[in-house]
Amino acid sequence: MSDPVWAIAIHGGSGPSYKDDYSDVSSSMKKILEAARRDLRKGASALDVVQEAVHELEDSGLHIAGRGSSPNTKGKWEQDAAIMDGSNRRAGAVAAIQGYKNPVDCARAVMKHSQHILLSGKGAEKFLKKRDLKTIGNPHGYYRPIISDASYDDGTHGTVGAVALDSEGRLASATSTGGLTNKPPGRISDSAQIGSGTWADERVAVSCTGQGEYFMRVNAASDVSARIRYTRSDLENATACVLEEISLLGGQGGLIAIDRLGRVAMPFNTSIMKRGFATWRDEFDVKVF
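Above: the chain's sequence. Below: its structure in token form.
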């Protein structure tokens, strides 16, 4: 009997290189991948695995998401996140929320406890108060921006995400971000928008990173699935074509994707993309450049 097919991919954002040594990032991502691999081997669901992986990426403080996020131009930390279950296309998302440690857990709460998909700002925060979620009492004491230099006005981006296929053939995706550096208050990323930055169905799971406005303009994440469905494209070609659309508009970024056969694609057009994957074939790799 052949081994069950499963796969996991994670990313820590794409963009310009902001330091010379990323060994701490690589080490952290390897640990997160190892834990996800272990859980998938034990039969964990793709949905639980992507949530946990993104939760850990948020906590690491090594990305412009979760603890490593930068404040907006008013000195406030606003976070976006989304999660999607490809087996039934249920999804949850939050946008421009403040005061919660793990936005991905907030997105899962919206999916589980709400009839809606996307809640934002004060309305989302009011809804989330009823859930058992970790909050941040002192934002200035908790957050440790990986980019704190005010001279970074280029909108550096560092979204985190995960996609997975489990041994039952279910696909799932999750994405979380602190948004662009020096963003205006109320700016919402593609990460929180189902179809643009996050997508999962019976064909593919996708998580995007980069200049979100461009990913929104091409509906990047779900377009990967559409290309597979309507043109019978394979995963590598579908993801490359979507990224080419973004490039032609002048946008930068990347994405990670896994299809129902366990194939992985991680294209990007930026200087770096922190990324890694593991599969049932004993494949395991983490790269930055």
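Helices lie at 23-41, 46-60, 103-113, 121-128, 139-142, 212-218, 220-231, 235-249.
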